[in-house]
Design brief:
Layout (H helix, E strand, L loop, with lengths): L7 H14 L3 E5 L1 H7 L7 E7 L5 H10 L2 E2 L2 H10 L3 E5 L5 E6 L3 H8 L1 E6 L2 E6 L1 H11 L2 H14 L5 H11 L2 H17 L10
Parallel strand pairs: 2-5
Antiparallel strand pairs: 1-2, 3-4, 4-5, 6-7
Helix pairs in contact: 3-4, 6-7, 6-8, 7-9
């Protein structure tokens, strides 16, 4: 009998289990950070940054395979050398894990700035809202701006503005961050909003 398809939440839980079992320092970024700190939206990719080395590739692959994913040691090793993410398909859903090696300054900053967030019955290391906002602005697509705006509005009272501006300056998006703050202020005047991390 074929295995029952699993949900996005179940894929996140399985990914967290593999990384913890292999004792890999990591942080969830991207869509999951948006769900935790910003506006709800449909997400199928589990984006994660992991501080692993060449010797960790084989144990990680074995862990992912045992958990129903499709992974290869070559993909994980390539991610270490070429800076791209390794795509790990879930064999029981349409979701996938986009795993990036923590080899760049922004990736290392994401791990350093992570927060333990309670989400869907799990405590997960998730990139903080400040890091996520700036990263989304650096990506620069329309959906990224909307994600950043949603996080800014909902977390505004809790943001470490000085740290966020410093990170934005490093990424070259300080002007965009100022524009985001202005837009959030306009919207707040129309309909005030604010909350902590999501645990829906």
């Amino acid at each position: 009998m074929p295995a029952k398809p699993r949900s996005y939440v179940a894929v996140v839980k399985a990914t967290e289990g593999v990384l913890r079992a292999c004792r890999i320092d990591h942080v969830f970024v991207g869509g999951l950070a948006v769900l935790a700190f910003g506006e709800p939206r449909t997400v199928t990719d589990v984006d994660v940054v992991a501080a692993y080395g060449p010797g960790d590739a084989a144990p990680l692959v074995q862990g992912f395979l045992r958990s129903g994913f499709l992974a290869s040691p070559e993909g994980l090793r390539d991610a270490l050398t070429d800076g791209a993410h390794c795509i790990i398909e879930d064999g029981r859903s349409r979701c996938r894990v986009d795993l990036s090696a923590a080899t760049t300054a922004p990736a290392k900053d994401a791990i350093a700035a992570r927060q333990d967030v309670r989400w869907r019955g799990m405590t997960l290391p998730i990139a903080g809202p400040e890091h996520t906002i700036v990263t989304k602005l650096a990506f620069g697509k329309e959906q990224d701006f909307e994600d950043a705006l949603g996080i800014y509005r909902r977390q505004q009272a809790r943001l470490d503005v000085e740290r966020m501006r410093g990170f934005a300056r490093e990424r070259g998006v300080l002007e965009e961050l100022d524009g985001l703050g202005f837009m959030a202020g306009v919207l707040a005047a129309e309909r005030p909003e604010g909350r902590g991390p999501e645990d829906a």
